[in-house]
């Protein structure tokens, strides 16, 4: 159900963006998406759960950051790593909606259970405050930030039925100002309507490092069974996992 909702949301959003991908571009994505490695010569290496991933593995994983302007624009620096993302096309990145809203106001609204419409329960971050690091050339993005893998945001679109108090429909699409270079990253494959879920799945991204109970700056993967996935979704009210 979640994967079908993602596909439906992408269809709705792409139909309303000013920089739509064409039918030909969409067909081409299906032939080049989902690569395990960006570099073909490394594709014989098989991934193993619970470890640091290697260079150019999972090239569709992105990191979403909040930036802080220093003195005058365009001088800025990274303020905080917000969340993981996944590249859907040359200019679209999928992430969690709660990563792109101002949390303090939302927590207050939810705590007091204000009776207001969904769209007034959260404030989306300004697009100028968000940047995306695409590709998988480096496991620690804070050590590898460069002009070649940093992309700026043209638009942030949150699911129209996102409920920050219940964490329902917690997905958003970031539209970039320019296409991600094929030498930097490649898109993941989107599911079809009748896709069959695999018994084992992998969580890939910048998650929670349980050794320190802090956000991990390193890109990691871990194999998940359906039972483990359901347990992680319910743990701590869903705060610890962005799936």
UniProtKB/TrEMBL annotation:
InterPro entries reported in the protein's UniProt record: Peptidase_S1_PA (IPR009003), Peptidase_S1_PA_chymotrypsin (IPR043504), Ser/Thr_Proteases_Immune/Dev (IPR051487), Trypsin_dom (IPR001254), TRYPSIN_HIS (IPR018114)
Alphabetized Pfam families for the sequence: Trypsin
GO MF entry, a single one: serine-type endopeptidase activity
Superkingdom of origin: Eukaryota
Annotated keywords: Disulfide bond, Signal
Stretches of the chain forming a coiled coil according to its record: none
Gene3D superfamilies: Trypsin-like serine proteases (2.40.10.10)
Region (Disordered): 224-243
All residue ranges annotated as the Peptidase S1 domain in the record: 47-207
A GO biological-process term: proteolysis
Residues of the signal peptide: 1-18
Chain ranges passing through the membrane: none
SMART domains: Tryp_SPc
Entry's family note: Belongs to the peptidase S1 family. CLIP subfamily.
Protein name: Peptidase S1 domain-containing protein
Gene source species: Dictyocaulus viviparus (Bovine lungworm)
